[in-house]
Structures are given as structure tokens and as C-alpha cells.
Amino acid sequence: MMTDSVKLNSREMATFAADGLLRLDGIVPDSINQQFLAEAGPFNKPQGSERPDQPTNTLTNFMARSQLPTVTAGTVLDTAYKETTALGGLVRLPRVRGAIESLVGSNSLVDHHFLHLARPRTFYEAGGVPQRSQHTHQDSTIDPRRAFDIQIFYFPHEVGPHMGGTRYVPGTHLRIVSESAIARYQNIRGQQHVVCPAGTLIFMHHGIWHGGGVNRSDEVRYMFKIRLNPSVPQVRLWDTSDLLDEDFQQRPIFFRKEPTNPNDIASLLTRPQPWFEGDTGRLEYINRIRFWRYLLGDESFDADYWVTRIENEPSTSV
Amino acid sequence: MSTKQQVLVLYLSSSALDANVIAWARYDGTGNDDHMAGDSDEPLYRSGVEALADGWRLIQASPLAAHAPGDEFRTGYLKYEFFFEKLVDDD
Q1: Is the distance from CB of A182 to CB of A134 less than 8 angstroms?
Q2: 3-state class (DSSP) for residue A211
């Protein structure tokens, strides 16, 4: 890529492996945010045949009027967005470029992008239609790959607590489910609701469970999502210069006399989530460790012996 | 007067009914309450037993299934799902 790139470090990558996301609050400068909102265009009240209970029609009309580009699926990111556009400026920010390169490589492909609009309370009141939050779901479809896509969630303006910012559940990304089959899960311990300053980006693994909230403000909430596919194995793409010998070594487990360093790779990979079940929480550790093995290109890596123990098959005794 | 059903779904941290609630959902056939995704960050009850004590009747619990060979470590849907109901006279 042509511009500077500030890659993620190993702690950030391990956090992504464990939580399935990295959040950069206010990373996009306001000039780009304002340009984006101008290019997206204003969202007007329903016009003509547009009705609050038919949001798809309203959105289709909005997209037709917008200056945001369309991108053919599979387009190389470098060629997808002109440098002079808001999105072109966004993906070329050094910190953003570095995060993208660390996660999906330097020649990632644009899968698709989409502008998500959470319409204000008045929009629904005008039509007498009740506001509903979006069901919890995983995007796309059943996806058992070890490789992963990322989805960049871009919040171009401040999102207040009453604006229904995206709800997401950290650590759900390695669960293999079928899109909205998880809609029954209305609330999950540890769920987060995005409240953020303008210009916030969240880089999510494609498997994170999420859904849009109810916008109880009088303003439209914009969120732009870009899905990127890797075109190379996602092995050691980040800045690995901070990896230490102790990041590969075992340590005492269960019976310890000293607290562990919370920034050790092993600590990051075995940090539980509030929604973990007793037994499958341990499977989450195992799956995170195997995910980290893929990222590291090292099938011998383990954290706190979780995988070594179940891989131990001594050969015939001498 | 008719009878309406209220449904509570609790997801617990193990197969024990007195285990902690980790996820939940509510549906109200009376129409008095409109529950939806993301509407609460803390559950109404700490365990399934607490729901029983408050008058909810357990009507279904997820079975314990054997782990298919080769699929032992795959995680997916929440495992310990308990359906409760209350029947309410609706005037």
C-alpha cells in the first residue's frame, strides 16, 4: 500500500483473538466524518410512497440519491475507494490501514459495504409503527472457516446512549451458528451497546453476535459497515516485535502463588466473558488457542496447557 | 375473560436449574409488556430456581446430548435453555 501503516501489536492481536473485536474510539478525524455525512446525504422524512413500515423502499431511495460509491464484490481494497472521497481517506489513515493489514493482509478484498440507518423516533410515530430493535444475529451464513473476514463498523457522528448504538457480545465470534437462528437470545450477560464519539471504528471478526438498537433520539443514526476478505494466510501479519519468550512458555496453572500478568498472551486468551457457560467456557479457551496458533503459524503454541492436555497421546511404551 | 401465556426463557451456566443466568428472553401474550433484543443488561432472576420461586412453571429444558466424534470442541448455540410460563387471566 502507498501510505504509512501503523500495525497492531501482539497484545492487540491476542485481544482480537479472544474478544473478536478491536475498538478505536474517535480515530477518524472530523474532516472525514463531515465529508462522509455529506456524501451519504441527508435522510429526509418519508416522501411520496415511502412509509415507515416499509423501510426497505425508503433505504433504496436513499441509496439512489447518495454519493457514496457502489463497489463490486471482490474488488481489491486499494482500488475500491478514490483517495479524494471520505471512505478513501478513511481506509488510508495509518492506524486504520495498519489494523486492516494486521488482520486481513495488504491486498484484502472488499466483500461489500452498507449504510445502516437507525431512523429516529419521529419517523415511526408519524406512521404509527412501533420501534423494534434488531434481533441478535451473526452476519452472512454458517461459516466454519479458520480464516476470517473483518467488518469495520464506522460511526461518523457521536452516538449517545439513547441512539440505539450497535449491540454486540464480545467473545462470540468463534461460535458456529446460522445467522438469525440466535434471534431468541434477547439479552446476554456482557453485551455492549455502542456509545461513542464521532469517528469511532470497531474492527470485528465476522462471527461476532450483534444487532442494531432502538434509536430513541430525534436524529438519524448512521453506521457504515465494510466487510473485507483476506487474500493471504493471516499469519503474523501484525507487528510481532513485542512477542517475548515468555509468551510461548507454560506457567503454573490453578495452584498459583503469584498473580499472573494480565498482559501475557496466555492471560489475554484465557480471559472469560460474563456469558460463558461452565463447561463450554473452557472450549472457548481451546478454540481461542487454536485460533492464535493459526495467526502465529505455530501449531505447538498453548496457553495454560488447555490443548496440550487433550493432544497428549503417548506412543507405545519402549 | 381469557387466559394468556407469558413466556420466560433462561439460559443457565450449566444443566442445573440453580445455576446462574447468562442470557434471557421474555414474551408477553397479554400485550402489557413489549420485550425485545437488548432491552435489559441484568436478568430478572439470578437462577432458574429463583424464577420457580416467583411462580414461573418450567415447561421445557434442553436435553444433554452426546458429543459427536470430531465435533467435541465446536461451540454454537447456548446449551442450557429452560422455558418457563405463566398463565394470566386477561380481563
Answers
A1: no
A2: strand
Q: A197: alpha, beta or left, given left = phi > 0 and alpha = psi -120 to 50? A: beta
Distance in Å, alpha carbon of A281 to nearest chain B alpha carbon? 9
Instruction: Tell me the per-residue pLDDT of A99-136, one tens digit each, with 9 for 90 and over.
Output: 999 999 999 999 999 999 998 988 888 888 899 999 99
Three-state DSSP at B86 gives strand
Task: Tell me, yes or no, if A282 comes closer than 8 A to chain B by beta carbon.
Answer: no
What tens digit of pLDDT does each residue of A50-86 get?
566 566 557 788 888 899 999 999 999 999 999 999 9
Beta strands in A46-129 (DSSP E): 75-76, 109-118
Sign of CA dihedral A230, A232, A235, A240: negative
Q: Is B80 on the interface with A (CB under 8 A)?
A: yes
End-to-end CA gap in chain B: 5
Question: How many CB atoms are located within 10 Å of the residue A208 CB?
Answer: 23
Q: Is pLDDT at B1 greater than 80 in this prediction?
A: no
Contact A179, A137 (CB under 8 A): yes
Residues 28-67 of B with CB under 8 A from A: 34-41, 43
- Nearest C-alpha of chain A: how many angstroms from B29? 16
ipTM of the complex: 0.97
Distance CA A284, CA A174 (A): 8
Is pLDDT at B28 greater than 50 in this prediction?
A: yes
Above 70 in pLDDT, residue A3?
no
Q: What is the pTM of this model?
A: 0.95
- Identify residue A255 by its one-letter amino acid code: F
Closest CA–CA distance from residue A85 to any residue of chain B (Å): 35
Q: Give the C-alpha separation, A25 to A153, whole Å.
A: 11
